[in-house]
Amino acid sequence: MTGLIGVFVEAWGEVRVHKARVVLSLVGVFLAVFAMTSVTGLGLIVAQVQQEQSERSTGRSATIQLSGFDQTTGAPAPAAEWDAAVGQLLDRYGVEAYATVAYRDALFRLPGGTQQLQVQQVSPSYGPLHRLQPVQGRWFREGDRTSLSPTLVVNEFFLDMLGGGDLTAPRTVVLGGARPVTATVVGVLRDGYRSPTVYRIDHTGLDDARATAAADQAAMMYGPPSVELWVPSAQVDEVMAALQADLPLLLPGISANVYRADDPSLEGTIDTLRLAVRAVGAVALLLGGLGVFNVGLMAVRQRIREIGIRRSFGATSARVFGAIMLESVVATVLAGLAAVALAVAVVDNLPIADLFNDGVPIADLPGFPVEAAVEGLLAAAGVGALAGLLPALLAVRVKVIDAIRF
Amino acid sequence: MRGLDGRGRGRGEGGPPERVGSQLQLTAVGREVRLPSGDLLEVLSGIDLTIGAGEHVSIVGRSGSGKSTLLNVLGLLDAPTSGEYLLDGQPTDRLRGRRRARLRGECFGFVFQQFNLLPRRTAVENVAAPLLYARGREFLGRTRRALEVLDQVGLAARADQVPERLSGGEQQRVAIARALVRRPRVVLADEPTGALDVETGQAVMALLAEATAAQGAALVTITHDLAVAALADRRLRLDHGRLTPMDAEAPGARTAEVVA
Ligand SMILES: Nc1ncnc2c1ncn2[C@@H]1O[C@H](COP(=O)(O)OP(=O)(O)O)[C@@H](O)[C@H]1O
Ligand SMILES: [Mg+2]
Q1: Shortest Cα–Cα distance, B260 to chain A (Å)
Q2: Where's the MacB-like periplasmic core domain (chain A) (predicted)?
């Protein structure tokens, strides 16, 4: 027990006495770990951003899109029956994360004149599934379904069409047609697009009562309303097959249209990106390790006499080995800690959204990836051990009598 | 203190060392080294030497006569290539690695001509250094023990000085404290006054003899200073790797008488 403490005491003493040398050798490790950790951390964040960007349009991994249409007429399935059947299937497969989406056209009476725009009618759950987070106002909530004034969430471009300014209070816009209705903008998204994007809360009582004709027409243009199901990637194929088979049983005459909405190759692409980032970090670390190794080797040569003296006190080979090795590890871990701390501070303060996402705020901007920090520390310790190995072996082989001979 | 108690010392009475029990015993020890040319060089040959507990022995000899080699053999830093070396009656030829290092640390204290203090460590850290390889309470109480021994060599006030700021005499006193800190049974001193001026050398040597005696440890001093040699109970001479008693020789005997 005291033997073990002794090794640590000795290594610490060495680090303390040889501060200058230790610091010198550690500059390399520090820079390498800093480079590695910040590159890895940043890389993982960028990968996350990349993923989000793609998920905003296609849904999270893995999203299944389900729609149904009448085999003979090509019209969408009747809304009430469709809802009931889909609800039953979602229950059966235990799918809890899902959203509905339908494409419609609407006339907007804007300051610059009336325009016909495409509107996505979505359920409140659509936002989280697509990582949509308004920069002003809010996303839809369940309560919006019963609101007399249909609620809208629009992008900044649309807000400009509406006259610009901020969304300090809900803004209204008249949706034209035979019977105009005043809609309320409750949230503004930043998506960077130079064209309007309008989301409208899905399934209000109003829609059901009067919009079947319009809905049928829209379905001809944009396809029937669909349900997006979010399921673990591993279960995608299974769930898709089940939907394909089960839906026609519940809705005779209706044929199911099932496909995967997100890009399955994205996961692979991002994994590759992560791997590349790691590789760059590893090379940086290797170079830093070479520095420690070099200085460590020089230090042992300089300390041959000292090692001989310690031998004369009864230092065993194991102790000599352990002390040199641990000195290297203790020192690199300290440098690693400092480097990781700096990397975290730097990366956390980078304007990630501006740099990598066209200024669009990132919904789930990850904190500094813990794995990158842990990796950095482990790598530092590993480099210390590796760089200490040869000097330690060399130290063990020091011949005592030669070392203390003058 | 374990020093001047019942174990006693044979010092000054000229009696045979066996009287107080022998600790180190060399029988027909030889040490050959292979030179880079491939030839064998006999550094030591036919060494018979017994050193008793608490005895003070000095070995003189010309430079290159094998004195350091002999001391290294005694201190388990080197091993004989022939003959037998018994430590407390146990053969040492089978001792390897860890056990050899442990035994060395426990039984011997070294004092070198060049002091060999660890640079940039304070006096007290230097003195405590051997205790890093001790265990249990010896390890845990190392600083206190180091200060105690520093006090014995009169350097308590300089405990926090690094060697670079100590005089030669002071450095050697730190080295003496370091040699004694683990209460060794034998202190091996290789020309301890060789790097000091005559006066300082005398003082340091007196201190070494006294402090070693106070702990009841045996002392083997290598020197080519006859005055230093004269402090010993027994004086030996090494000549081309062979050991002979010095008192039989005229010059040595004369010096011994003068001092005695
Ligand atoms: N390992 C070795 N290799 C070659 N020669 C050695 C070795 N060890 C000792 N010698 C030689 O043996 C002789 C005695 O050395 P040493 O014991 O250091 O003598 P001393 O201490 O009396 O001056 C010297 O000539 C030295 O060069
Ligand atoms: Mg010598």
Answers
A1: 33
A2: 23-198
Sheet holding B22-34, edge to edge: B40-52, B22-34, B82-87, B90-91
Of the bound ligands, which one is closest to the alpha carbon of residue B35? Answer: 1
What is the distance between the alpha carbons of residues A161 and A337, in angstroms, rounded to a whole number?
52
Residue B85 Cα to ligand 2 middle (Å): 20
Place of tokens 């426990």: B106
pLDDT in tens, A304-321: 888 888 888 888 888 888
What does pTM read for this prediction?
0.62
Rounded Cα gap, residues B46 and B27, in angstroms: 7
Tokens describing residue B172: 């050697």
State how far residue B70 is from chain A, nearest Cα, in angstroms.
Answer: 11
In the DSSP assignment, the letter for residue A378 is: H
> Which residue from A211, A231, A207, A217 is spatially nearest to A74, judged by alpha carbons?
A217
CA distance A306 to B43: 26
Q: How far apart are CA B58 and CA B44, in angstroms?
A: 17
- Give me ligand 1 centre to Cα B45, in Å: 13
Domain residue ranges of chain B, discontinuous segments joined by +: 55-68+98-245
A170 token code pair? 């809900």
Ligand 1 neighbour B61 (Cβ under 6 A): yes
CB neighbour list of residue B181: distance below 8 Å, 6 or more residues apart: B109, B127, B128, B130, B131, B145, B146, B149
- Calculate helix-pair angle for A236-250, A79-93, nearest 10 degrees: 140
Q: How confident is the model over A111-122, as a mean pLDDT?
A: 88
The residue whose CA has the least distance to atom 20 of ligand 1 is B64
B214 touches chain A (CB under 8 A): no
Interface probe with A: pick from B113, B124, B132, B135, most Cβ of A within 10 Å = B132
- How distant is the Cα of A329 from the closest Cα of chain B, in angstroms? 20
> B119 touching A, CB under 8 A?
yes
Q: How far apart are CA A122 and CA A210, in angstroms?
A: 18
Domain at B55-68+98-245: CATH code: 3.40.50.300
Which ipTM was obtained for this model? Answer: 0.80
Separation of CA B102 from chain center: 17
| pLDDT tens per residue across span B37-51 | 888 888 898 899 999
